Description:
Distance between the termini: 47 Å
Mean pLDDT: 92
Low-confidence stretches: none
Amino acid sequence: MAVPAELKYFDGLIFLDLLPGSRRARVSNDPDDRNWPFYFYYDDEKLACGERELVGLEVLDVSNITDYWLSELDKMEGLPRVDVPDLGLMDMTISDVLRWAKQTYPSRYSKATG
């Protein structure tokens, strides 16, 4: 069963909010010791007990979403499938939502500076 999510975009930045509206404390924590281009946010109380429940994911710029990191994200266990009803994205993997965002939204670096 997919969990509700909301995708927010601003000037290249992407934030995927799982269970939007829930009042849970979030803490950023990497899933492993690699230098991921994503920020993973977990439920603070559950993480303190050793359980990783993803509640959000942030990408500072859509250009950081690469096929390599999407495939690594697909290998992670326990990630829920999500529904992003505002965008018509239903029962998708998190990597598929990020892939859609990369194809849809411009990078902050794609704009000409003057």
